């Protein structure tokens, strides 16, 4: 019988990898949107994918996404809820014609993360369950700490310019206030939306989709349309400007950030990377510094020594590691079935989407592990080829037309899968909130307060009081 | 690479013309650009100040209005009513309203959890208020929805492949008791298999208590209750027994005790049985002091009316111990003797499907009504009789259910000869 299962599963893993890779070429289309559509399709025609191939299929879909979404992120500047850590360095490299290098560097980090996930198997089965049980009852205050740290670490910027002390202060604190406002609005939005969802019940499993499209996808598109972003001609590198030392530097923050994101609810790879970056912060690296102005009013230039580029490389590699640990690791943990964790410790969007139709069983972990290696290797090869194609075509593409089409496609998906005009209205409201960090220069992950705050408060037992306070009983 | 404007035009106050306020971050990569017309880092143009300001304004005003409108929409919106049977996997996490009757109600004080199972005509759903039992008790003033109540519940669906559909509740106000269920009291003699699934009360005396074991070796408790109309048995699993109050536990295990019980009708091998509902609730198993006259009066329903009818060809040894009625013709009658020398009456009964033998002991025979005695001893007589299945040397046989009760035998016609 097993001789029958192996080729069938392999076929669906290949199919998932291909589907994930091709669909992820579409800028701003998140894999969870694709997974939602795939689940609806599967529920209407279950014979399309046999039950035993469902988990490998979706796993390969998300593995391919972890690799391939690097391409639209790098070349087309489209950010999801986890890309904050890598967007800036990869964007800079694209503008210097080194987009292919940036994509492959991030992809190598992702591949390293895939192998790290497999290497961590004993850790997942013998240590992780204890950690999950020990910390399980403390998640509310841990999330509280994450929230406090996250808000407080939005440090004043600015260059001390302005005629009056108030103007200088306002300039410096603009990003702090924008961050706090974004966090507050996203948190209130989340509290209302999750306490009393307004979407039709039959689409509830995707009810967060229009919220995320609004927070992350649409503001990126608007930003690119307004700035008339156009990538320059890209080089075709035969090697990448990174050595093994860079990978070892990137591994620890990537692992810490990715595992935090994989375990803590509502903490994404972006937030995880920020936390990990603060705990492992490049202590061996030189810092970039401003060059002292020669006369008053002169533009202040930033010196970027070679070590700064190393820091960029580490960012990209760590981002790649963290990304796969978050997307794939969070789903893989669903399969760590032990006596302490009989239902696994899986989290994340895919585990949530699949929960009504799939439950993990002992032994599935190794099918998933082999799926990750197989699908990851293929996806990495596709990433190399895909990034070269993207480098070739990105300067030639009419970005305005492309983003307009993507915006129409995303609106159509939200309209048909996430509640019609109500979904569009939700997307519009969250787009406005999502534009605040984009246009006021603070962290975009503040939008994740939409889940962080309601989950933390509910875990702490305040959900009932919040519902009363909002009059939504 | 694009050229940067390192010397932008300035107005009289020294600020950059057209800037109004400082637009110091690149709109593409967020990098500090100062007054340059292009970003040092990504090369994106920065000459879109007016429109960016408009976008900022739209973002600020739109986000605040959006949150307010969402609150208004959520405030006005009433969650959709759905049937339990219509729940699909894509409804996971939906806030919906269901209406139905409570078929199970559990108060787990150890985990501070209140659980209900609600059933409508289309299916059942488990409703869990984890860690909220106390707030539910406060809200309902101690009288939480109990079995039989019709309730309307608004909650979030949680659908898993392993556990099916359940509903999570945290807000007591989202449970509304539409109709409090008042259970009718039924005499034991009136309980039939037709009462399976129905909820009612009985006032009865413990006739027999027998502790036993399940096949898995777990303790169980078999109790027989009686009133003036009949007897009925109930099995309590040990967890149910332990959930009873100490007084109820003692009463149930002591024959002669009298109780008022809230029960659900059920059937075992076509015989009516009862199951105790909600053993944790003191209202459901109440020890009472009642006199004989207060026990329910005999039922007016004749056993022949309430028993199921069977054909002889369908009776097997598996029917041993069960009671039913048969409409038969006397095929043979023989007067014999027991080993002790007492007289016994062996009657062969038949219908269009088969024949079966029945033994009537002398004491039973003597208590039979006169016309029944004549009918049993006359070949060709037709009768409808309430009998109990039995077995003799591997063959099915029947015996009279209650020879002294004239309502268990109906003589249709008496045969013409012996």
What are the SSEs and their pairings?
The complex is a heterodimer of chains A (473) and B (418).
Chain A: H1 2-23, H2 31-44, H3 51-68, H4 70-75, H5 84-95, H6 99-119, H7 121-126, H8 128-136, H9 139-152, H10 165-195, H11 209-227, H12 244-263, H13 269-279, E1 289-290, E2 302-303, H14 306-332, H15 349-354, H16 364-393, H17 399-417, H18 420-440, H19 449-459, H20 463-469
Antiparallel strand pairs in A: 1-2
Helix pairs in contact in A: 1-3, 1-16, 3-14, 3-16, 5-6, 5-14, 6-14, 6-16, 9-19, 10-18, 10-19, 11-17, 11-18, 12-13, 12-14, 13-14, 17-18
Chain B: H1 49-76, E1 80-81, E2 95-108, E3 113-120, E4 123-129, H2 133-139, E5 150-160, E6 164-168, E7 175-179, E8 199-213, E9 219-227, E10 230-237, H3 238-243, H4 246-252, E11 258-268, E12 271-276, E13 285-287, H5 303-306, E14 323-337, E15 343-350, E16 355-361, H6 362-367, H7 370-376, E17 382-392, E18 395-400, E19 409-413
Describe the protein's architecture and organization.
The complex is a heterodimer of chains A (473) and B (418). With 473 residues, chain A is mainly alpha-helical. Chain A is built from 20 helices and two strands. Chain A has helices spanning 2-23, 31-44, 51-68, 70-75, 84-95, 99-119, 121-126, 128-136, 139-152, 165-195, 209-227, 244-263, 269-279, 306-332, 349-354, 364-393, 399-417, 420-440, 449-459, 463-469; strands at 289-290, 302-303. Chain A has a two-stranded antiparallel sheet. By secondary structure, chain B is α+β, with helices and mostly antiparallel strands. Helices cover 16% and strands 37% of the residues of chain B. Chain B is built from seven helices and 19 strands. The termini of chain B are far apart. Residues 1-11 and 15-23 of chain B have low confidence and may be disordered. Chains A and B meet through helix 2, helix 5, helix 10, helix 11 and helix 18 of A and helix 1 and strand 5 of B.
